[in-house]
């Protein structure tokens, strides 16, 4: 027992280690301190991911109803662009009126919301503007107005836009704005069925424009007669309202005198022989004489003021070699041509 005890006493003691955390090692330089933060590789753009998700047309969580049509959408897309949805974040459906946002244009509108670039057919431009106006999507409105202001938006397209605007309550002002673009296409437009279907307000606005191009004010006069005769006698009570936009004092002098007598053309005579129209023709002829004799003297200017005579602004001028009556001088005093001559020229156009 004593020997065994002696041997045990001589054995070395096991090392005694202080219990340390790895965090404590750094404080005594026992290991190199690792980098504090790690930078991960750059991830894909969230915008690109959202766009790809939306373009898959899956997992819709919002519904737009237009008449009998229902369009599943992504709520976030609609909320970004439509103020009504932003102001009512708890709604999950949006009901729109067909005459303000046409159902056939909504898919195009939704594609615009998710695509950076979008091609739109001509026939879709005005309905798209109507939808953007009602939903107060300012960016889209600005894009369309920029298109209207561009050189590529021709007079022909302006006429189509003017007619399309009549179909939508919220953009009736576009009708007049587009009619104001008509210049050298005026007589071609007069030859069309669409001209005959213009509302009276649109017609008067067009005939009052100094931008329309004619060879003679008589062409504006005959254009008014063409519109009035299209739905006679329903339009009979519109004669003076329409003719007020014709600058009778700018008419060829000889032709004005002829209109004061029957011309054996029922379409013309039933308008020119009305008592109110006869008075207007006489007044136009009188004003014409005063304007022609104005020499700039104070006396003549005073006479014009007494009779409330203001010389009308001239229209734009054209001279077409396919016309049998056009002359190189605008409103030439001796120019005389009939309504039948005018219609034949429209047939050429």
What is the end-to-end distance?
137 Å
| Structural category | mainly alpha
Order of SSEs, N→C? HHHEEHHEHHHHHHHHEHHHHHHEH
How much beta, percentage-wise? 5-15%
Q: Can you tell me the residue ranges where pLDDT is under 50 for at least 5 consecutive residues?
A: none
Query: What's the average pLDDT?
Result: 87
Number of strands: 5
**Radius of gyration over C-alpha positions, nearest whole angstrom:** 40 Å
Estimate the global geometry from the Cα principal axes: elongated
Instruction: Give, in spatial order, the strands making up the sheet with the most strands.
Output: 2-1-3
- Main sheet overview: 3 strands, mixed
Output the number of helix runs: 20
Name the helicity range.
Answer: 40-55%
SSE order and pairing:
Blueprint: H1 2-10, H2 22-25, H3 46-55, E1 62-66, E2 69-73, H4 75-81, H5 83-87, E3 93-96, H6 106-114, H7 122-135, H8 138-149, H9 155-165, H10 173-179, H11 186-190, H12 193-196, H13 200-207, E4 213-214, H14 217-230, H15 239-243, H16 253-259, H17 266-272, H18 275-292, H19 298-306, E5 316-317, H20 339-348
Parallel strand pairs: 1-3, 4-5
Antiparallel strand pairs: 1-2
Protein traits:
349 residues; 3-stranded mixed β-sheet; two-stranded parallel ribbon; 5% strand
Care to describe what's here?
The chain is mainly α and 349 residues long. The chain is built from 20 helices and 5 strands. It has helices spanning 2-10, 22-25, 46-55, 75-81, 83-87, 106-114, 122-135, 138-149, 155-165, 173-179, 186-190, 193-196, 200-207, 217-230, 239-243, 253-259, 266-272, 275-292, 298-306, 339-348; strands at residues 62-66, 69-73, 93-96, 213-214, 316-317. A hairpin with a 2-residue loop joins strand 1 (62-66) and strand 2 (69-73). The longest helix is centred in the last third of the chain and has 18 residues, at 275-292. The radius of gyration is 40 Å and the shape is elongated. The mean pLDDT is 87.
């Amino acid at each position: 027992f004593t020997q065994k005890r002696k041997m045990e006493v001589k054995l070395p003691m096991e090392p005694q280690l202080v219990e340390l955390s790895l965090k404590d090692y750094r404080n005594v330089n026992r290991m190199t301190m690792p980098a504090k933060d790690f930078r991960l590789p750059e991830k894909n753009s969230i915008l690109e991911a959202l766009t790809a998700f939306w373009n898959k047309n899956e997992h819709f969580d919002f519904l737009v109803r237009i008449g009998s049509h229902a369009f599943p959408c992504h709520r976030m897309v609609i909320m970004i662009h439509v103020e009504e949805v932003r102001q009512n974040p708890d709604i999950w459906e949006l009901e729109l009126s067909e005459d303000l946002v046409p159902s056939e244009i909504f898919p195009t509108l939704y594609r615009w919301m998710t695509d950076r670039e979008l091609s739109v057919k001509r026939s879709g431009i005005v309905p798209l503007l109507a939808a953007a106006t009602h939903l107060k999507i300012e960016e889209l409105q600005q894009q369309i107005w920029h298109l209207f202001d561009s050189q590529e938006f021709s007079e022909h397209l302006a006429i189509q836009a003017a007619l399309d605007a009549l179909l939508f309550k919220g953009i009736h002002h576009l009708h007049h704005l587009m009619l104001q673009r008509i210049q050298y296409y005026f007589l071609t437009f007069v030859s069309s069925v669409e001209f005959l279907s213009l509302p009276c307000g649109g017609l008067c606005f067009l005939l009052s424009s100094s931008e329309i191009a004619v060879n003679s004010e008589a062409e504006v006069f005959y254009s008014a007669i063409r519109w009035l005769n299209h739905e006679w006698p329903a339009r009979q009570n519109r004669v003076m309202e329409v003719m007020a936009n014709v600058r009778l004092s700018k008419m060829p002098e000889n032709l004005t005198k002829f209109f004061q007598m029957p011309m054996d053309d029922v379409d013309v005579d039933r308008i020119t022989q009305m008592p109110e129209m006869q008075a207007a023709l006489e007044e136009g002829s009188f004003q014409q004489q005063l304007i022609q004799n104005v020499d700039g003297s104070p006396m003549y200017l005073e006479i014009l003021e007494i009779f409330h005579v203001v010389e009308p602004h001239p229209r734009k001028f054209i001279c077409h070699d396919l016309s049998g009556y056009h002359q190189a001088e605008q409103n030439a005093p001796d120019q005389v041509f009939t309504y039948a001559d005018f219609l034949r020229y429209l047939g050429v156009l």
